[in-house]
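Sample 3 of the quickstart, ligand protoporphyrin IX containing FE:
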Amino acid sequence: MVCPPAIHLNPEKYHDPLSFNPWRWKGQGSITTSKHFMPFGGGMRLCAGSEYEKLQMSVVLHFLLTKYRWTKIKGGEIKQTLGVVFPNGLHIKVKEVNHEQE
Ligand code: HEM
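Result:
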């Protein structure tokens, strides 16, 4: 049995693991499951919804990032527990982008 958060937040494998840095996987190809990266589990218990979920997250993120602008108001401090939590929340203001005015 493995604990994915313990693996994903291992500073011996990932430099500064709590910082938001999607580029840490740049150039590594499309790794879905490895012994150092298993967001959807692995092996016989691999998440049955993993491909569907990756498509859904791509579509949702695409629209959230292209149609809206986000401004941080307060919070956002990360605390490492068994997972990653925001003890004081993360307050953001979301504004729809008006592409005609840009
Ligand atoms: C971001 C979203 C999701 C994440 C991070 C996630 C993660 C996981 C993980 C880590 C496991 C393995 C649990 C274990 O080893 O016991 C799992 C199993 C599973 N997931 Fe997901 N999941 C997600 C979304 C979904 C969705 C949308 C569905 C269904 C439409 C789904 C269906 C399942 C099923 C049926 C299993 C059990 C597979 C088995 O034991 O044979 N998951 N998921």
